[in-house]
């Protein structure tokens, strides 16, 4: 198996939904920032978010001038006969000097590999590739240099995987818990008619409704579906179907059928992740504000630097930024997290 | 309003005292005095930060009720680049709006200024949103992409008194008041 001896160690990969957030992330110590264009080519195609081509060009220049990388998220799946948008995104980003393109679709990967053979490719978590065989296929066929792993593996599983694949590993360490089969989730499509994987919208805002009564009880809805109800003292999460509470004849009260509103925080597992061979640590949250980016990126910069220096870290101070005011180590610590 | 009060803002120890001070600074201003001030602020933002309207996109003609729940008035924003408006209303005379964003005065001020995360405020119930969620998301993202401080720009419009009021409000916020 051929290995890349120049593989990075301890890279901090941070989100940016706007140019201001990107500059904030770079200034706060990000090694790399991932972002997308204002269209369906990326999986955070939210209103008012993302970059125009001109903004992307300026963002790359800003980051490069400060020693940081910019990664383009082109991680959705083009519908049949509609690949031009994805090809244009790849062509433009490559022309701007983007450092890597994060892809999920094999057609997009093949286009980059054939048209821009020098362009570095990262495999998105949206590709849903957790196995040795799948990852090796992407590496061999498209020259993928890094895989972003789904958040369903334990650290021993990651360590085992790392020994058998010829590319870098990037793991989510903070933000959305994200246990769904990514790239294959159709819950939003079922509820709204729009696809997370092809339109880039999970719970599109146009279909989200919040209703608060006189007593401050909050009901969150997606389309015609009630996601959850919260009393005035309870912390709500994002209005996604996967984080809703549902009634069934077998349960006395509403229960979380898929996952809970809770955020991943792997600060205490950083030493083990490094030991397992994880090359890059990813923070989720392109939909979040630059305030979130500033606080989370600076905290994680400090944490990674401390661990690399042999010191201990604890990022409990980020609890206020977590979904539902709760955090977990998820499957990384144990597959019995609930 | 005595500006000398602001110098003591940081020394107020009790929440009730700090809240009273915030109301004293902002609350009793008659609306007819407030309207030209708000007009000047929104015109200045439109002039200095025209990129704001690009991100608001199709929601430029929507109306947003920005409701500082601990103040005796609420604001209605129409981010139309041709004729942007920001007006204060008493709650019993509110016009129909497309979306409402509610929180304490200082919370809203800090969020608009990019110092607090809107999602975290929502998770903690310090912020609530009703009506056209997409329009609110667009407005939030547009405001968040602005460089510099909108609040400082607004304060600077009114010279030293404006900056003094802002510093006083920020001291109150740093002491834990919402």
* CATH domain class name of the largest domain in chain A: Alpha Beta
Helical segment count of chain B: 8
**Tally of separate helices of chain A:** 10
Principal-axis shape of chain B: globular
Structural class of chain B: alpha+beta
Tell me the series of helices and strands of chain B, N- to C-terminal: HHHEEEEHHEHHH
The chain-level structural class of chain A is alpha/beta
Largest sheet of chain B: 5 strands, mixed
Amino-to-carboxy terminus distance of chain A: 37 Å
Helix content of chain B: 40-55%
What oligomeric state best describes the polypeptide chains here? heterodimer
**CATH-assigned fold name of chain B:** Nonspecific Lipid-transfer Protein, Chain A
Give the overall shape of chain A: globular
Q: Widest sheet of chain A: strand order?
A: 1-2-3-4-5-6-7-14
Task: Specify Rg of chain B, calculated over alpha carbons.
Answer: 16 Å
CATH homologous superfamily designation of the largest domain in chain A: Aldolase class I
The fraction of residues assigned to DSSP E strands of chain A is: 15-25%
Describe this structure in words.
The complex is a heterodimer of chains A (338) and B (178). Chain A has 338 residues and is α/β, with parallel strands linked by helices. Helix content of chain A is 30%, strand content 19%. Chain A has two domains: 11-179 and 262-333, TIM Barrel (Alpha-Beta Barrel); 198-256, no CATH class. Chain A contains ten helices and 15 strands. In chain A, strand 8 (208-212) and strand 9 form a beta hairpin. The model of chain A has no long low-confidence stretch (mean pLDDT 93). In chain B, 48% of the residues lie in helices and 14% in strands. In chain B, a hairpin with a 5-residue loop joins strand 1 (64-68) and strand 2 (74-78). Chain B is globular and about 35 Å long. Classes of the chains: A alpha/beta (338), B alpha+beta (178). At the A-B interface, helix 1, strand 8 and helix 9 of A face helix 5, strand 5 and helix 6 of B.
